[in-house]
Amino acid sequence: MSQNSSAVISPWAASAEEGGRARFAVPATPRPPSSATADRPVRGRLELGIKVPNGKSIASTQFHQGALRILRPHYLDESGQVCYVMVNPGGAYLGADLYVIDVEVGDGAKLLLTTQSATKIYRTPGSFAEQRMTLRLGEGAQLELAPDQLIAYREASYRQNTLITLTPSSSLVMAEVITPGWSPDGASFRYEELRLRTEIHVEAGGGTELLALDNLLIRPSLNDVTGMGFMEGRSHLGSLVVVDSRVDQALADELHALSAGHDAYTGVSLTASLGGTTGLVLRSLSDSTEELNRLLGACTALLRGQWYGQAPLDLRKY
User: By residue range, what is the domain housing residue 84?
Assistant: First the structure.
């Protein structure tokens, strides 16, 4: 993968390139959700609202239904940031499953949201599995989204739609790793389709404007995704999305330099600025979940230290 490889797997339009690091513009008009997903029955629903009444973030609303749960809150340090862990008691997503997650982080509140274990997509005969997530961040809100890896097994088809609305003073950090699951013949990329779509909107002038639209589509049955210009012979994909007023070219350069110490092909791109905030997307290819977790962990540790004065994450799940 070339250093501006994120252009291959997302619809950013390159406007300039310097020293192997590319800056990308964003399409002006997002597409509405597919009508094919409009009336699917909900297998699991989770709603979580966070506020900060006295310097310590707490849940103001909390609701779960079906095959989604959330564990009791805990605090990793003295920053006041609350950590919640999402759980799927069923253990995996199956065909025609729909999961809906709605999270609101209020003004000045801080949330770390993670999962108990990997999200597994098993065979989905007849229809794809789907997750729809809505995230809203208030003024000065901080959200770190750090799920375990997404594993797509043989004959799996999965769609993930994430809609994010934030303010120019909000801070968002999202990390994700995608890996192909085991198949009987030992080959990778036996899943049917992965479609991950993320829209990020910024509140500005009484309304909202689109900051970024990222659309990742992998169809191994139709394309040789291991070839040049796509996965470059690698099997695992890592992504880091950051939106913050402190994002700039210097940060992109710093993260790019940090990635050089890892066994992965990595590209970093920036969005245009909107209302005083800017987005950053880091994409990395590797053959190892652990290597991508180390890379993304190093990047988030840098941000946590520089921006929030917090130590690197140590979730101790296993």
Answer: 6-20+42-308
pLDDT, one tens digit per residue, over 171-186 is: 999 999 999 887 676 6
Would you say residue 33 lies in a domain? no
Closest-CA residue to 197 (of 143, 150, 130): 130
Using CA atoms, how far apart are residues 76 and 301, in angstroms rounded to an integer? 14
Those residues with Cβ within 8 angstroms of residue 19's Cβ, 6 or more apart along the chain or in another chain: 253
Q: How far apart are CA 279 and CA 125, in angstroms?
A: 37
Number of other CB atoms surrounding residue 146 within 10 Å: 19
The rounded distance, in Å, linking the Cα atoms of 72 and 79 is: 18
- Residue 199 CA to residue 241 CA, distance in Å, equals 11
Structure tokens at 79: 């920053």
The answer to whether residues 198 and 213 touch, using CB atoms and an 8 Å cutoff, is yes
- Note whether 143 and 135 are within 8 A (CB): yes
For residue 243, is it within any domain? yes
d(CA 282, CA 24): 12
What is the pLDDT at residue 133? 98
Asked whether residue 200 is domain-assigned, the answer is: yes
pLDDT digits (tens, 9 = 90+) for 244-256: 999 999 999 999 9
* Number of folded domains that form the chain: 1
Q: For residue 285, how many other CB atoms are within 10 A of its CB?
A: 21
In a domain, 201, yes or no: yes
- Residue pair 164/133 in contact (Cβ under 8 Å)? The answer is no
Q: Which two tokens stand for residue 257?
A: 């330099």
pTM: 0.85
